[in-house]
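Researcher: Structure prediction, please.
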Amino acid sequence: MFERPQQGEQAVLVHMALSDASRDDDCVEFTDLARSAGARPVALVTGARKSPDPRLFVGSGKAEEIRRHVVEQCAELVIFDHELSPSQERNLERLFQCRVLDRTGLILDIFAQRARSHEGKLQVELAQLRHMSTRLVRGWTHLERQKGGIGLRGPGETQLETDRRLLAGRIKQILRRLEKVEGQREQGRQSRRRAEIPTVSLVGYTNAGKSTLFNRLTGAGVYAADQLFATLDPTLRRVDLPDQQSMILADTVGFVRQLPHDLVAAFKATLTETREASLLLHVVDAADPRREANIEHVNRVLNEIGANDVPQILVFNKIDAVPDSGPRLVPAAHGEPARVYLSAHTGEGVDLLMEWLADRFADSLVQGWMTLPPSAGRERAGLYEMGAVLAEELQPNGDMRLEVRLPRRRLEELFRDTGLTPLVESDRQHVA
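Model: Predicted structure follows.
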């Protein structure tokens, strides 16, 4: 019921500027979205209106122009870069004699093709059902009324009402399943909190290179391609940092302008990883002329999902596509977040990011001198195995005095079952 065709379709694209001036970059993104869904754009119709027409969204003259393109190009589909009401879709389909899709339906189609995990498929189906529930009348106009007469009276419920009831039941079922998945994710988050492992979430505009950077940092092999919404399902991997530190890196779905509200609501469980992260890596396509507008849009979505207070660092990716641009780190100043310029494709500047992350989470490090009795040979060997020993002095009474540098969590784990209480003599932190 919710499978989407994989092959391309001849499509006429319609973009109307509802403000004083049309934005060419919006048309470029809209065309990329259509191609990502598998459509083959054969014509792009643009125009401007002060407000949408209640019946056709566009004026009658513009609608006739679109119809001519449909006939001349033998188009199978008309896609609007706007949200259409159910009645507008019906009226346009009646006029064009072909399928009409709005921006929300287009993005839902792309998400349906990209979802791979059980959770991702449930979230997409939930958004599709909510979108479809307002458009059922389009496919069941012949069943809007019960038939009358002897032998023709129905059971008291029209087909349309039956479908709405079935949809409502399926939505409740999906919500229950998503609650179970969210409970499992919450257990994972609690385990990471107990282990004091920070979570870093990759966010950014779609096609900014988040998955490529994720693969560069983790070696996970997540699918990455030069297209919008190449990956959809969230992925978490552990990343080792310098000085025996570690973090959990989360790759999340990319954002886009006018992201449908149904999608934001459906993906709340996934976006929780972003909202409860210790740090956000805001990945930006440095070669995109719209990068500043994209940054502003992503921050707007982060505010919408309640993640605007999470600290972030701007990661300007794809510097290999920018002339005379090299890897560098710009520290935070004047209330602005720190910036790292790198290329996830070539690996340039990734070491700067790793060093910055190590410094960012260095507050959890313990560094200084500690004294161990002769009976703690196993613990001493464990410290050496972790590479945490910087120097060692043997005391006259047989005690071992070691200079160590390691995360406090690892130190506590090493001595958890010994009954020893290691005290690190340091000007940074003490573990008692």
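Model: Residues 1-8, 138-145, 427-432 have pLDDT under 50 and may be disordered.
Researcher: Thanks, that helps.
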